[in-house]
Amino acid sequence: MKSIYFVRHGESVHNAAKRFNELQTPLSERGIRQAGEIAERASKLSVELVVASTLKRAQQTAAVVAKRLGVNMESSAFFVEGIQSSRLLGKEVSGPEITEAHKSYHGNFTVPGYRFEDGENFDDLKERALAGLAYLEGRSEENILVVSHGFFMWIIAAAAVFGKDLTAKECQGVIRGFDLMENTGLTVLTFDAPSHKAVGEMVSPWQLKVWNDHAHLG
Amino acid sequence: MKTVYFVRHGESEVNLRNYTQGDHQSPLTAKGREQAVLIAERCAKLPVDIIISSTMRRAQETAQTISNRIGTQIESSDLFHERKSPTILDSNERYRSPLRQMRDAWLASFYSESGERVEDGENFSDIMTRAGEALAYLETRPENNILVVAHGFILRTVLSHVLFGKMISPEEFRKFILSVRVENTGISVLHFDPDGTETYDNMPIKGWFMRVWNDHAHLG
In chain A, which residues have their Cβ closer than 8 Å to the Cβ of B217? Predict the structure, then answer.
């Protein structure tokens, strides 16, 4: 059985200032401390490889973890944050532009083919999450730590639980019902060969074991 | 805002045998008692006003261990009982046909549109109704910090009700149940916000949402 430990990056300077992250937004000092705390915790897990989203805040978090564990770090675009409309990057999270954008985005999330400006839509996100999971399935390592992002972790969790037939309604249930992961919160997915012990066919060989464990943060 | 800490009971004899889990009197194993001590230690750091426990022995023993450690009183409620199996299956450990067929039919009744029941066992609509009643009961409790000791299947049912409400289809429920896990003494944190002051992406969250699922860091 494979175990994948998904970690949300540490606090970024934009997280602290309540602004939308940009591609190159770095960790805050607090975020760097959080990265040290999750690295310490991860040292008790038998992690063989660290995979990081290509965005700077994930790269910085992953570098701290990989160094503490003494394992290789690779980068992957599968696990970058959900791509938002470019005009919103760096803006205040509770400002009028982003509030209006979120209203449109979430209000129309289940409308087939709906897209907000030049951001990713549900179909894009689902395809990328399933491709990311398939990539992890194909890796030879059994225990992998992946540093990813708050919004995209909702999509990863929904894709793991509901499988390739994930609907926008199911995905919206997860986005609405699962709280945003904490910075350096830990989510664990397992992957196993399909079992027929349970009633009916398994929908997905992936299972959600833990969401947003942040016991290491006190 | 209300916080509910849901804890699954420690490992019990009946978990090891892995039949219908309907045995009311199945005690914790030695390992289950150790797990209960570990989660009790962890709960000492949480602001718990009341413990509510399923009436089944494995939950009661777990709740008592936590209560002894944190000095909070226990109330019992059948709303958090494990899914209810046909009585005739509970007293028979080794299933032969036709009891095996009965058990399989009962398990399948949780993922079926038909609405059929097997003897006095619960089915999909029964357990979904009970999950809704359990959430409504927690909403009306006066305490703001509640610890509930319950069971794997009913906990996942409550979470699916939080995500999709009572309109969830048996097929969605099946996908969800089979893909979400919960460990013995794993702790999950759900919040209830009656006013919609909490938000995700600037959208108000009114009602229930899940903050943590199945944290079991205390198990090492």
Answer: 41, 213, 215-216
**Do residue A207 and residue B181 have CB atoms under 8 angstroms apart?**
yes
d(CA B23, CA B57): 9
Close Cβ partners of B19 (under 8 Å, ≥ 6 residues apart): B89, B93, B95, B103
The region of weakest confidence among A124-133, B92-101, B171-180 is: B92-101
Instruction: List pLDDT tens digits, range B132-188.
Output: 999 999 999 999 999 999 999 999 999 999 998 888 999 999 999 999 999 999 999
Averaged pLDDT score across all residues of chain B: 91
pLDDT tens-digit series, residues A94-116: 999 999 999 999 999 999 999 99
Q: Which two tokens stand for residue B165?
A: 């409400």
Q: A199 and B203 in contact by Cβ < 8 A? A: no
Task: Spell out the residues 6+ positions from residue A8 whose beta carbon is closer than 8 angstroms to its own.
Answer: A147, A148, A149, A150, A153, A181, A182, A183, A184, A185
Which chain B residues are closer than 8 Å to A190 by Cβ? 181
Structure tokens at A49: 């490889």
| Residues of B in Cβ contact (< 8 Å) with A94 | 202
Q: To the nearest whole angstrom, how far is the Cα of A92 from the nearest Cα of chain B?
A: 11
DSSP code at position B18: T
**Chain B residue closest in CA terms to A192:** B179
Which chain A residue is nearest to residue B108, measuring alpha carbons? A199
Q: What is the ipTM of this complex?
A: 0.93
Q: Give the separation between CA B110 and CA B172, rounded to whole angstroms.
A: 11
Which residues are CB-neighbours of A115 under 8 A, at least 6 positions away? A121
**B191 has a chain A CB within 8 A of its CB:** yes
Question: H or E stretch including A104?
Answer: helix A96-107
> How much is the pTM?
0.94
The answer to whether the CB atoms of B163 and A200 lie below 8 A apart is no
Measured CA to CA, the distance from residue A51 to residue A61 in angstroms comes to 11
Question: Is some CB atom of chain A closer than 8 A to the CB atom of B110?
Answer: yes
